[in-house]
């Protein structure tokens, strides 16, 4: 996909981001045919929106197995306890994750160094009228970025493996085991492909455990020991 085509596709997406109106399928010739084209559109979309980037988010693809990385926009990262208007998010998907704050600039390959870790509840969303069915379209839409709710800080090394769970508050589902350290390394490698990150920026790994489609009025809780717990109230 040429740069001009990527910019044109990004304008369609940017309008959906700013207006809140659903985006119909991209016109023929502008729809991304592969991940490289989706990444080119996402890069143009970041430029079109003009919002600060605070890090990178690694999230499950539409197949639930692959993982996709894209920039995380600062206004989409909120403290736990912030009221959430679920009606503003189209096709929401909820999951547990972990956020790492970089202690050093991410400029070269190697283990990312974090000053702190935080539990997160990730509520993915879509600007498309129908959910993306392939990774290229999801990536073009900034990887289905919705909102990332951030819990309390925890100081410690990234666990090699973590048990994560998320559910409606009061329930206790079986935890799912995830290779957290490896996923953080994958996020760091992706961030380098996007140009690196400064100290203080964040890496987010979501989808460690997933829940049913969230509904207004619900209260969700997630736990990723030893990093911590977090609760979200949906309005």
UniProtKB/TrEMBL annotation:
Organism per entry: Roseococcus pinisoli
Species classification: Bacteria, Pseudomonadati, Pseudomonadota, Alphaproteobacteria, Acetobacterales
Protein name: Hydratase
InterPro entries cross-referenced by the UniProt entry: Fumarylacetoacetase_C_sf
């Amino acid at each position: 996909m040429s740069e001009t085509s990527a910019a044109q596709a990004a304008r369609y997406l940017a309008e959906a981001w700013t207006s809140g109106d659903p985006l119909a399928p991209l016109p023929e010739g502008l729809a991304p045919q592969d991940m490289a084209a989706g990444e080119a559109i996402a890069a143009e979309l970041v430029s079109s929106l003009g919002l600060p980037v605070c890090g990178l988010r690694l999230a499950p693809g539409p197949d639930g197995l692959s993982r996709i990385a894209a920039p995380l926009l600062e206004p989409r990262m909120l403290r736990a306890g912030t009221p959430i208007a679920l009606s503003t998010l189209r096709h929401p998907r909820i999951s547990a994750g972990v956020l790492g704050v970089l202690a050093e600039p991410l400029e070269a390959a190697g283990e990312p160094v974090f000053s702190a870790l935080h539990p997160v509840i990730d509520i993915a969303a879509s600007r498309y009228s129908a959910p993306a069915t392939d990774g290229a379209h999801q990536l073009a839409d900034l990887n289905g970025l919705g909102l990332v709710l951030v819990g309390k800080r925890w100081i410690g090394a990234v666990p090699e493996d973590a048990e994560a769970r998320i559910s409606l508050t009061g329930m206790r589902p079986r935890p799912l085991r995830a290779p957290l350290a490896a996923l953080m390394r994958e996020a760091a490698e992706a961030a380098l492909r996007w140009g690196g990150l400064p100290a203080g920026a964040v890496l987010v790994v979501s989808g460690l455990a997933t829940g049913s489609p969230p509904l207004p009025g619900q209260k969700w809780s997630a736990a990723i020991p030893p990093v911590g717990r977090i609760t979200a109230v949906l309005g």
